[in-house]
Amino acid sequence: MYMFKYILKRIGLMLMTFCIIMLICFVLIKLLPIPINTTIGQDSEILKERLRARGYYDPILVQLFNYVKRIFTEGDFGIGVNMPGYINAPVWDAFVSRLPPTVLINVYSSLIGVPIGLGLGIFAALKKNKWQDHVISTGVMLLISVPSIVYAFLIQYIFCFKLDWFPIMMETGTDYFTWAMFRSMMPATLSLSLGSIAGYARGTRAELTEVLTSEFMLLARTKGLTRGQATLRHALRNSMVPIFPSILSEFVAVLSGSMIIENIFAIPGVGMLYLTSIRVLDYDFFMLLSGFYCLVGLTAGIVVDISYGFIDPRIRMGAR
């Protein structure tokens, strides 16, 4: 009962936070004039008339009411104004068409990063203060300290240019589950997974090292369990309590993608669409994508908090 009330409370706070953020974004963006880019082949007068018919030049409060009304009654999130390739096109359709590449490269990066990161962290904890631990810790510190954009350029130069293992840019088309498409996604996937590997390895090593030195581990050994049995049955299980929620949040946050990485490797995903909407000042695209990233971030935070109560029975969210 406590958990149910806590979940409802957190969802309510999340929705309130989301509405406040989107209200601020809407008001600030509508205070700016609507630029009509005549250099990309659109008829400015016809487009202005269409925007005027949709109420884009009404007072801000009237625009806000009409915007929310169109979303809930018609599923209309607006049309493209300056977005190349999406002039007068529905914003929602463009968003849906760009979502699969973003999801795939981030799912692939999680599938690579989680097992490798956990494995390196466990190995480093079991080899604490030995040369294996020092090597892994040094590599982790380097991966955490260097921005992912540097990894991207190194991967492009080494694996794509010198070794010619992967193409520099992602293949065009929508056949996302072919070998050629998967191979073209690997440079971006590797760039995203390196940071995850370092984060998981550092967190797993720290938690498992602390658990291995706990008193209940000494008790387990005195009862006759071998070091491997005590580690598998007790140490790993307890050390995963703070780590598993972060894995869940990453799987929720894969939808958010990586805007910079997508641009470097020409991934036609949501991240590239978001940066383009900011560059060309396309307000409807900006509003939808800002709401998407905001909602994903808030949802990931709730998943982390709620998962603690299910993973560790000692934690009861919402109880006094």
Give a topology summary:
Layout: H1 2-30, H2 44-53, H3 60-74, H4 91-126, H5 131-145, H6 148-162, H7 179-212, H8 215-222, H9 227-253, H10 259-264, H11 270-280, H12 283-311
What does this molecule look like?
The model has no long low-confidence stretch (mean pLDDT 79). Helix content is 73%, strand content 0%. Helix 4 (91-126) packs antiparallel against helix 9. The protein has helices spanning 2-30, 44-53, 60-74, 91-126, 131-145, 148-162, 179-212, 215-222, 227-253, 259-264, 270-280, 283-311. It is mostly helical and 320 residues long. It has twelve helices and no strands.
Keywords:
single chain, about 325 residues, mainly alpha, about 75% helix
Order of SSEs: HHHHHHHHHHHH
Mind describing the biggest β-sheet?
A: none
Number of helices, where a helix is a run of at least 4 consecutive DSSP H or I residues: 12
> What radius of gyration results from the CA coordinates?
24 Å
Q: What is the β-strand count?
A: 0
Structural class, by secondary structure, is mainly alpha
* Fraction of helical residues: over 70%
Q: What is the mean pLDDT?
A: 79
Shape: flat
Which runs of at least 5 residues are low in confidence (pLDDT < 50)?
none
Q: Determine the N-to-C terminus distance.
A: 12 Å
Strand content: under 5%
